[in-house]
Automatic annotation (TrEMBL):
UniProt keyword terms in alphabetical order: ANK repeat, Repeat, Signal
Protein known as: Ankyrin repeat domain-containing protein
Keyword Repeat on entry: yes
Highest taxon of source: Bacteria
Keyword Transferase: no
Each ANK repeat, start to end: 92-124, 125-159, 265-298, 299-331, 332-364, 405-437, 438-471
Organism per entry: Maribacter chungangensis
Signal sequence annotation: 1-21
Pfam families: Ank_2 (PF12796)
InterPro entries with a match to the protein in the record: Ankyrin_rpt, Ankyrin_rpt-contain_sf
């Protein structure tokens, strides 16, 4: 029980649930896209917004400002604020120098280094700042010169063995960029751990002109074997980077490369393409070559499931006649319908339901479609949630059924301190004092995770019993009294006794 409370408080401290994050304007990307002035930032601070808070994904104001290319004067102002030190760790263990390099912001890079930022570090995925910038498509050689001047190592590789030359290749438009990295000591014939070389990575960008030039220079383009070094698989991953993708695939096939190929993770070209491309001619090309849309990768996902997860209705409709089992599940027990409810649009959900998708599907943890529906709730834009809710109700989904760990939707909303969602769930008449499998009511969970008393008082007003104890004989007051977030806010808790 103590471990659970610690974990919940840690999650909240690192900034928590969606409901909390929505309260801080600095954690809204639209705020930064509007290019706010220093005066507007100061006004937001005065209104109570935390300029150094990290959200649940470890992004903060400076990260979002850099990603949105907010005016550098504003970014520098943010960096003067307490809690925004130049070496602060953010998403995936990246300092601000990573994000500045990713956005080709040399001015801020210079400012950060001048104030103590290091250029010779790696993030939690093994990327150096040079490699992160290269992966982001930066071809500004002055950026790399600056990093090299400050102890960065251009020969360092990612965990998969790719160097900066390979990583930048999909974004290169001029062979001079390749020459720059060659002159800095990188071999044009270098490969990653899977045997993919410069030709293969360039294929991700789809530039046939560059591919032909690389081939003319003798760079390897053929696959090493059935699992490694396949340019068609690489091109399928970068299909969103170029519009004329079909021409790239037909060119690669003309070189003798096999379209019907599977990598060591069990993925064929359609696994990646199905996520994002709405070009049906590409799907026809691969299907005619025998590429299977029912093929499971090692995670249990098929191309059709990937399309249901995030692609257009037209793609899902096109693939449907080839589907053997619409209710196939991945290793986590998620069906195509669960994925669509979780991330895709109501029209895709409706189409799947009309074509035999199982409304009663349950994942490996015991979560129903109601759990995935809950993930789509957005107080500011409720349309998708409401449309999906109506569709699922029309097919008799039981929204009151217990989810993983015996939690009801009410437990989940209370845990996340999502007041708007709690109010939206009122019509379903949940037993507000029902315990989950760990012996906690919704009020217990709120007491452990709240940073103010709003949700606590709301639940009590709706009938939550303050006297119900956990299976460890702890009261709501006991739990709230151990909540560090409530202590920081100096919230009076006498009303819980």
């Amino acid at each position: 029980m103590k471990i659970l409370k610690f974990a919940l408080n840690l999650i909240l401290f690192l900034s928590l649930s969606t409901g909390i994050a929505q309260d801080n304007i600095f954690l809204k990307r639209d705020f930064w896209k509007a290019n706010p002035t220093i005066a507007e930032v100061e006004s937001a601070i005065e209104a109570g917004n935390d300029v150094s808070e990290l959200n649940s994904n470890m992004f903060d104001a400076v990260c979002y400002a850099l990603l949105a290319k907010t005016d550098n004067a504003t970014v520098k102002h943010l960096l003067t604020k307490k809690g925004n030190a130049v070496d602060k760790l953010t998403h995936d263990g990246r300092t601000y120098l990573f994000w500045a390099a990713y956005r080709n912001n040399l001015e801020i890079m210079e400012y950060l280094v001048a104030n103590g930022a290091r250029a010779d570090i790696k993030d939690s995925h093994g990327y150096t700042i040079i490699n992160f910038a290269a992966r982001g498509g930066q071809t500004n050689t002055a950026l790399y010169d600056f990093l090299l001047k400050h102890n960065a190592d251009i020969k360092d590789t990612t965990n998969s063995g790719a160097n900066a030359l390979l990583l930048v290749a999909p974004s290169v438009t001029d062979f001079k960029t390749f020459d720059y990295f060659k002159n800095k000591g990188l071999d044009l014939n270098s490969t990653d751990h899977n045997g993919n070389g410069l030709f293969h990575y360039t294929a991700k960008g789809g530039d046939i002109r560059l591919l032909k030039k690389l081939k003319s220079k003798g760079l390897a383009y053929n696959q090493l074997n059935k699992l490694n070094g396949n340019a068609i698989l690489m091109a399928s991953e970068g299909v969103d980077k170029h519009k004329d993708a079909l021409a790239t695939f037909t060119y690669l096939e003309s070189l003798g490369l096999e379209p019907n190929i599977t990598d060591k993770e069990g993925r064929n070209p359609l696994h990646a393409i199905a996520y994002k491309s709405d070009d049906l001619s590409i799907f026809r090309f691969f299907i005619e070559k025998g590429v299977a849309i029912n093929q499971k990768d090692k995670g249990g996902d098929t191309p059709f499931m990937n399309a249901a997860n995030s692609n257009e209705l037209s793609v899902v409709q096109f693939l449907m006649p080839y589907v053997n089992n619409i209710n196939l599940k991945d290793e986590n027990g998620r069906s195509a319908l669960a994925m669509a409810v979780n991330k895709n649009t109501p029209d895709v959900v409706d189409y799947l339901l009309q074509n035999g998708a199982d409304i009663a599907t349950i994942d490996e943890k015991g979560n129903s479609l109601a759990y995935y529906l809950l993930n789509t709730f957005n107080e500011k834009s409720p349309e998708k949630f409401e449309s999906k809710l109506k569709l699922l109700q029309a097919h008799d989904l039981d929204l009151t059924a217990a989810q993983y760990n015996g939690n009801s939707l009410l437990h989940l909303a209370a845990r996340d301190n999502n007041m708007a969602l709690l109010k939206r769930l009122e019509e379903f008449k949940f037993d507000i004092n029902k315990k989950n499998e760990e012996g906690n009511t919704a009020l217990h969970l709120a007491a452990m995770t709240s940073r103010n008393d709003a949700v606590l008082k709301y639940l009590i007003s709706k009938g939550a019993d303050r006297m119900v104890k956990t299976d460890f004989n702890e009261t709501v007051f006991d739990l709230a009294n151990e909540n560090e977030l409530l202590k920081e806010q100096k919230i009076a808790l006498e009303f819980l006794k």
